[in-house]
Design a protein that fits this description.
By secondary structure, the chain is an alpha/beta fold. The protein is built from ten helices and eight strands. Strands 3-2-1-4 form a four-stranded parallel β-sheet, with helices on both faces. It has a two-stranded parallel ribbon with strand order 5-8. Helix 7 links the parallel strand 6 and strand 7 (206-207). Helix 3 packs parallel to helix 4 (81-94), helix 3 crosses helix 8 and helix 9 crosses helix 10.
């Protein structure tokens, strides 16, 4: 068995290098052509029915506005009915021909069934489902009081992405799934939290309207993932090539510039 591992340790690096030299340039050309096609081909969503959870504020609210500008029909879901009514009226003014609001809580299974049933009953169909509702959590390790809090947050995020990646395989090509991975976004949930805890908004926060536009474009192009701010994906790419350098730079930036935002009293 040890001999087999020795052989594989010798052969696989050679095969990998050969693959990169011979085939990777062609893969990049195919990837470039695919990106160009996606940028030129955008889904016409006029008249389509879109259900958005967490639509009373933040990313969900602004994604609703992007859809409204294109003439979609909207079903807006959130717990705050008064805020939903404001978002619905703004969506109508932006161009949405028909907007309904459905107050409820996505953590309640019966409410989730109600969202879908009422949307289909009113519109007769459902074209896009935007699962946006959520709660932000930005904490460094030393601020956790219970280790299970950290486990719950990290496990939930990872499990959610893996769940939709698996679901994408099962229901493709009939239904497409775009996974949005937003970074620090300035919303009325995150910005007040940062100002209260750290004295100011996060220096690298992106505006919620910019983030919503990127998510809407990604959905329209059929992207598998939308990472916003978009520069974050280049960090991931570089990290795969030279992880030590990226780890050093991220550590330096965090300690020198970002950690003060997480100061404790």
């Amino acid at each position: 068995m040890d001999m087999l591992h020795t052989i594989l340790n010798f052969l696989l690096p050679l095969l990998t290098i050969s693959f990169l030299v011979l085939f990777y340039p062609f893969y990049l050309l195919i990837k470039l052509a695919s990106c160009l096609i996606k940028h030129l081909r955008f889904e016409d969503v006029a008249g389509k029915v879109v259900l958005i959870t967490g639509a009373s504020s933040g990313i969900g609210e602004h994604v609703a506005y992007e859809y409204a500008k294109k003439g979609t029909k909207l079903a807006l879901v959130a717990r705050r009915k008064d805020r939903l009514e404001i978002v619905a009226e703004t969506s109508r003014q932006l161009g949405s021909g028909d907007v309904i609001i459905i107050p409820g809580d996505v953590s309640n299974v019966e409410d989730c069934k109600k969202f879908i049933d009422e949307t289909i009953h009113h519109f007769g169909k459902l074209d896009h489902l935007i699962n946006n509702a959520g709660v932000p959590q930005t904490v460094i390790f030393e601020d956790f009081t219970q280790i299970q809090d950290a486990n719950s947050i990290m496990a939930s995020k990872a499990a959610l992405v893996k769940f939709f990646e698996t679901l994408r395989v099962e229901i493709s090509p009939d239904i497409k799934i775009t996974i949005a991975l937003p970074g620090f976004i300035s919303t009325d949930m995150t910005t007040p939290q940062f100002k209260e805890m750290y004295g100011s908004d996060f220096i690298l926060s992106e505006s919620v309207s910019r983030c919503a536009k990127a998510i809407f474009r990604g959905i329209g192009r059929g992207e598998a993932y939308v990472i916003e701010p978009s520069w974050i994906k280049w960090i991931f790419l570089i990290k795969n090539v030279c992880p030590e350098i990226v780890d050093y730079l991220l550590d330096y930036i965090f300690v020198s510039y970002l950690k003060p935002y997480f100061k404790r009293d």
